[in-house]
Amino acid sequence: MVITRRLTYKNSIFAQTLKRKAKLMLDINFNHTLDIQLRFSDIDKFGHVNNAAYFTYYDLGKTEYFSEAYPQVNWKKEGIVVAHINVDFIQPIFASDSIAVQTAVTEIGEKSFQLYQQVIDTKTQEIKCVCRSTMVGFDLENQQSVPLSEDCKKSLCDFEGRDLRRRKNEE
Fold first, then answer.
1. Angle between helices 150-160 and 51-69 (to 10 degrees)
2. Which of 63, 87, 98, 80 is nearest to 151 (CA)?
3. How far apart (Å, rounded) are the C-alpha atoms in residues 86 and 129?
4. What global pTM score does this model have?
5. Dist CA 11 CA 109 (whole Å)
6. Residues 33 and 100: beta-carbon distance below 8 Å
7. What is the Cβ-side half-sphere exposure of residue 144, based on CA atoms within 13 angstroms?
């Protein structure tokens, strides 16, 4: 209800951001899927995957995504770190489930980009969990955020098959 009221303010930055995010969430095409092997240690005493294990799955998905989408990166010079992460657990994962992590970049700014991931059941295609992360370009030597390289932006856009860069008037 609060969101509905705020969206009536067509020119507010908040309303524009919500509209852009809502459109992106509906328009996500996952070009990267990684099958995940469940481990015995992932299962808690309730018989389902412990919520802490999901972050390992998302890290594996990110690592493989970058190795395919941006293989030329020199990780000793160009860092990308997680600045914010938000996870919604939707359905439990059980030891007998077959799962995969799907990963996509949905938006690219000057210093950061939005990464959307979801864990799915590969047999039913049901979404088990969703994760939204803000990833930031990072200077490892000086320990501070830096603009993303044009090479990084281009590689991610090419991999996703469309221009995801925010325009100046959208930021």
1. 100
2. 80
3. 11
4. 0.81
5. 20
6. yes
7. 2
Model confidence at 165, pLDDT cuts 50, 70, 90, reads very high
The predicted model gives 8-30 an average pLDDT of 53
**Two structure tokens written together for 125:** 């295609």
Instruction: Using the structure block, give the residue that is written with the tokens 């990833």.
Output: 135
Q: How far is residue 156's CA from residue 88's CA, in Å, rounded to a whole number?
A: 25
Based on its alpha-carbon atoms, the radius of gyration of the chain, rounded to whole angstroms, reads: 17
User: What are the backbone angles phi and psi of residue 97, rounded to the nearest 5°?
Assistant: -75, 150
Confidence of residue 170 (pLDDT cuts 50, 70, 90): low
Contact between 4 and 15 (Cβ < 8 Å): no
DSSP string, 114-168: EEEEEEEETTT--EEEEEEEEEEEEETTTTEE-PPPHHHHHHHHHHHTS--BPPG
Query: Binning pLDDT at 50, 70 and 90, where does residue 168 land?
Result: low
